[in-house]
Amino acid sequence: MASEVGWILDVYTEGNQAFIWIRTEDGKVIKLRDHYHPSLYILPKTCEDGERLLFTLQNQSGVMEAAWVEKYINLRVEKKRRLIHAVVEDTSAYRQIVEALKRQEQVMELFNIDLLHLQQYLFTGLQIEPTSNVTFLHDSNGLLSEIRKVDEYSPISLW
After folding, report:
1. CA–CA distance from 60 to each of 41, 56, 93, 112, 158 (Å)?
2. How many CB atoms lie within 10 A of CB 2?
3. How far apart are CA 66 and CA 64, in angstroms?
4. How far apart are CA 113 and CA 5, in angstroms?
5. Quick check: 39 and 158 in contact, CB under 8 A?
6. Are 86 and 112 in contact (CB under 8 A)?
7. What is the mean pLDDT of the chain?
């Protein structure tokens, strides 16, 4: 396992993987891979509709996980709503599932479907913005195992 320090240059997603380009302190540019599974949130019209949707999603090809969660859906309303969070295998299955859900009459609203996969990976997976200084661990095949943002005002600590 290699431990290095560098800056995130670029990120993109493809299928069920994210690719991260990093320039290390010594000037090398390396490409790392990470797992990526897109997700979305579903607000059903009723609780009964939600239970039916949840059962369908849990048995749907391409869906890795589906479960009830509590989330805010509006900045003006301080009450969490009960939503279904669905995690999908890859970007192609995601497109198919979103299109199928748009046609379901039990669905009141879908959330996070307007985010690009790159944004979804950055905001929910990596949780580190591009150009950030990071410390990271990866294997010899370029598979990312851990990454942390480095506070630019603190000394860098490697694992």
Report:
1. 16, 6, 10, 20, 42
2. 12
3. 7
4. 33
5. no
6. no
7. 92
* Residue bearing tokens 């995130």: 8
How many angstroms from the chain centroid is the CA of residue 24? 24
Q: Give the chain's domains with CATH numbers.
A: 2-36+122-149 (2.40.50.140), 39-116 (3.30.70)
Distance CA 79, CA 94 (A): 28
Query: What pLDDT shows up at residue 108?
Result: 97
Coil/strand/helix, residue 69:
strand
Q: What is the pLDDT of residue 155?
A: 55
Q: Closest Cα partner for 63 from 87, 92, 95?
A: 87
